[in-house]
Amino acid sequence: MRVGACGLNNTDINTRTGWYDSKVESSVTEELGLHGRDDGAAASWNKSTVTFPRIQGAAVAGVITAVGGSVEPSRIGQRVLVDPSVRDPSLPRRAQLVEYLGSERDGGFAEFVAVPSVNAHAVETSLTDAELATFPCSYDTAEEMLSRAALAAGETILVTGAGGGVGTALIQLALVRGAQVVAVASRSKQQRLEALGVHHFVARDEGDLRASVEHLVGERGVDVVADVVGGSLFGPVLKVLRRGGRYTSSGAIGGPMAAMDLRDLIYKDLEMYGITNPTADTFRRLVHLIEEGLLRPLLDAAYPLEDLRMAQEQLLKRAHVGKLVVVP
Ligand SMILES: NC(=O)c1ccc[n+]([C@@H]2O[C@H](COP(=O)([O-])OP(=O)(O)OC[C@H]3O[C@@H](n4cnc5c(N)ncnc54)[C@H](OP(=O)(O)O)[C@@H]3O)[C@@H](O)[C@H]2O)c1
């Protein structure tokens, strides 16, 4: 297929710098993200090492230009959004993700990319390719997080890293479910997140998180925490979960090593979910929500493909709200 646009995601940087390797205990700083590591860390998300040459880029929107022998030729010319998770349905539930676009197989930082036909979802929308490329990876992951935690209408959810790609996806998808959203991010992002519809904003680096959240939602706490930051925020967000609450995580951008008070897990009967394997149904649900016009593409900036390095430098500054994409 011809790539119309490809979204930027941290997984490309995590893989390129070897961050998924268990020998790495730090977060991906701007310095590491730009220059990589020199300690031989090389594992990818599933612990297998990536082979080279490899074209990265997980979030592809574009048009089918050619098909394999077993695929209906009428698909040529179809506008598609690509599910980046290549699965083997014969494997057990939660272990079906076998290849990720841009990691174990070539991705969309290119003019053309080949993907399995089941991963290329026809999409009917007036959105541009750059807008469409904001959705894969962030939104399917976010929807899987909410679905596993069974977020329901009227419940309160706290979202960390709320200005980022997954954070803004979590906010929009939680609002679609009719939940009340508490966003945690840098103060500089408050206005843009309030414009997105969050009910409460908490500045992550100002004062005591628990006191701020309880002041807003009451001592009972929140029903669900959706966390992509981890690190030093992990312990505190467990304190703001109500008894019987659910914690769901798909990222540790603030650091992979975290301390917790096990009494929160045990004596509050918490449920915890780790998410890296969104299902095919989740991606189909995402395409449906896009076609229904229920999600706003939050395109912070689009760069020409040849400026990918500059675009990743910008991603690492974490000043964006929403997504960055490259356009061939
Ligand atoms: N498991 C999966 O399938 C999956 C899929 C997508 C993403 N992820 C992971 O989820 C994480 C978030 O991804 P994303 O695309 O939302 O990232 P992003 O767009 O770069 O946003 C990350 C946000 O985290 C906040 N943050 C808080 N503490 C931070 C710290 N110590 N260092 C850096 N940022 C910090 C930043 O905002 P403030 O500074 O304003 O708080 C920023 O808005 C990444 O680790 C990514 O690899 C996992």
CATH class of the largest domain: Alpha Beta
Give the C-alpha Rg.
Answer: 19 Å
Category by helix and strand content: alpha/beta
- CATH third-tier fold name of the largest domain: Quinone Oxidoreductase, Chain A, domain 1
Order of helices and strands: EHHEEEEEHHEHEHEHEHEHEHEHE
Q: What strand order characterises the main sheet?
A: 6-3-2-1-14-13
- List the domain count as a whole number: 2
What's the helical proportion of residues?
25-40%
Which CATH-level-2 architecture of the largest domain? Answer: Alpha-Beta Complex
Task: Please describe what this structure looks like.
- The chain contains eleven helices and 14 strands.
- With 328 residues, it is an alpha/beta fold.
- The longest helix is centred in the middle third of the chain and has 12 residues, at 165-176.
- Bound molecules: NADP nicotinamide-adenine-dinucleotide phosphate.
- NADP nicotinamide-adenine-dinucleotide phosphate (NAP) binds next to helix 1, helix 4 and helix 5.
Condensed summary:
The chain has 328 residues and is an alpha/beta fold. The protein contains 11 helices and 14 strands.
